[in-house]
Each structure stands twice: as structure tokens, then as C-alpha cells.
Amino acid sequence: MIHVPALAIAAPLMMWGMYRRVHRNIARQKITGWRLITRSTVLGILFVVLLLWPSFDPVMALAEVAGVIAGALFAILGLRLTRFEQMPDGHYFTPNAILGVAVSMLFVGRMIYRIIVLYPALAAAQQSDSPITAQMLNAGPRSALTIALLGIVIGYFCVFCLGVLRTSRRMVNPVTETVA
Questions:
Q1: How far apart are CA 60 and CA 146, in angstroms?
Q2: CA geometry: angle at 21 spanning 19 and 23, to 5°?
Q3: Per-residue b/e over 98-116, b at no fewer than 16 CB within 10 Å?
Q4: Spatial CA neighbour of 155 closest among 50, 60, 43, 53
Q5: Contact between residue 167 and residue 31 where contact means Cβ atoms under 8 Å apart
Q6: Residues 39, 161 contacting (CB under 8 angstroms)
Q7: How many CB atoms lie under 10 A from the CB of residue 86?
Q8: Cis bond leading into 54, ω under 30°?
Q9: Are 160 and 78 in contact (CB under 8 A)?
Q10: Are the C-beta atoms of 29 and 93 separated by less than 8 Å?
Q11: Which phi and psi angles does 32 have, rounded to 5°?
């Protein structure tokens, strides 16, 4: 049996989160250094945690590293296709819509995959009135493809954020520039 109140709260929140993620990857944004650094740092930490935890698995590590490399290459392409603008109130960038949506759909697809994998274990636990355990939340085999797709997302956003920051620091702000 599906817990309707929880689903009524969770589904709109998930849809709003997905909308924000997709919108963030296609809309014009103001360049904020601390946000870009924070995102890159968090993604770098996530990369290391996924690489080493809970135990080192060479196949999963190779899949993650390959995904991160592919994501970094996509980010370099994305940076070349990104439009940078100088406005009186700061620097802005508009990511390439196709790459932004594609990488976002990888993220959304990963979430849908995990829901499909988790649902049978959680439904069985609910029918038998047994508590939900960490083992149930880790149901399903670890997939090298899933880890590689997650690596693409991590590599793309980490390199893209650092690239936007690097490009913005090379831009000259005409408001603060003085002519001698």
C-alpha cells in the first residue's frame, strides 16, 4: 500500500527540485564565486566518497572515473558553447541548453532508476509490517552503468563550475575599469 500523504508531499517536492535543476542548466545566471566554489568542492568530496565507500571496488571505481572524465569533456564543450555577458550589476552566463538538459536528464533518470529498484523492497517491507532497513535502501545490484552516469554528472558540474569561475575572473568589468 502506498503511503498517500507522504507521496502527496514528496512528489511535488521532487518535481520542483527537478524543475530547478533543469532551469539552472538552461537559464541565464549571475556568476557568484562562492557558489561555484562550493558546488565544485561538494562534488569533489562526493566523487571521493563514492570512490572509496563503503569498500573499494575496482570495477565501480573505474566506471566512476570514466564517467567523470567523460563529464569533464562534456563540460569543456559546454564552456565553449556558454554565453558570457557583462552587465552593470555583474557578470552573467547562459549555459548551452542542449548539454544542460542532457546532463539534467541523466540526473533525473538516475533518480527514476533508484525508485524503480527500491520500490519492490519497500513495498514488501510495508506489506509484512517490517521496518525499513539500510539494506533495503541499498537494494539491487550496484551497477557500473549507474555509477558511470553519476560520474558524468559529477564531472560535468565540477569542471563546468570551475570553468565558469575561471572565465569570469578573466572578464573585465567595464564599470570598475579606469582609463589612465
A1: 9
A2: 65
A3: ebbeebbebbeebeeeeee
A4: 43
A5: no
A6: yes
A7: 14
A8: yes
A9: yes
A10: yes
A11: -125, 110
pTM to 2 decimals? 0.75
Mutual orientation of helices 33-52 and 144-170 as an angle, nearest 10°? 150
Cβ atoms within 10 A of the Cβ of 39, count?
17
Q: Which residue has the cell 533543469?
A: 22
Q: Cα Rg for the chain, rounded, in angstroms?
A: 20
pLDDT of residue 75: 94
Q: Grid coordinates 564599470 are at which residue?
A: 175
Q: Is 167 left (phi over 0), alpha (psi -120 to 50) or beta?
A: alpha
Nearest-CA neighbor of 161 among 69, 82, 107?
Answer: 82
> Rounded to an integer, what distance in angstroms lies between the CA atom of residue 169 and that of residue 178?
17
Cross-strand pairs, 87: 90
pLDDT at position 71: 94
Interior angle at CA 112, CA 127 and CA 62, nearest 5: 115
Per-10-residue mean pLDDT, the chain, length 180: 60 74 75 87 89 78 93 94 88 87 80 76 72 59 79 92 89 48
CA quadruple 161, 110, 71, 27: dihedral sign? negative
Nearest to 160 by CA among 76, 101, 102, 103: 76
- What are the φ/ψ torsions at residue 171 (nearest 5 degrees)? -75, 145
